[in-house]
Amino acid sequence: MKLEHCAVIGGELALAFDDGFEAYLPLLFLRRACPCAECQGEPDALGRVVVPETSIGDRGCEIAGMDQVGGYGLQIRWADGHSNGIYSYPLLRQLAAALEN
């Protein structure tokens, strides 16, 4: 699975993969799904995941830039400075599927 094209169109991120799969993900939905430990939490020494309370800044749903990471993911730089999350291609497809249901 390879990402062939991605672009911000209005309030959505449009994605096109090499197998013909296309997705349009609302930016707020995408930001709330940020997979980084700061947003989703991480396991402590006992394996418990504590999800931190986070807030999205004024420009938190604007994309300042994007970089493909290896052959497996997309790192989004949000305009409020947040850029820790790497959205794997399978995760992006799961997010698209969640929107369909």
TrEMBL record:
Keywords (A to Z) from UniProt: Iron, Metal-binding
> Pfam families per the record?
GBBH-like_N (PF06155)
Among InterPro entries, the record links this protein to: GBBH-like_N (IPR010376), GBBH-like_N_sf (IPR038492)
Domain spans labelled Gamma-butyrobetaine hydroxylase-like N-terminal: 12-93
Q: What is this protein called?
A: Gamma-butyrobetaine hydroxylase-like N-terminal domain-containing protein
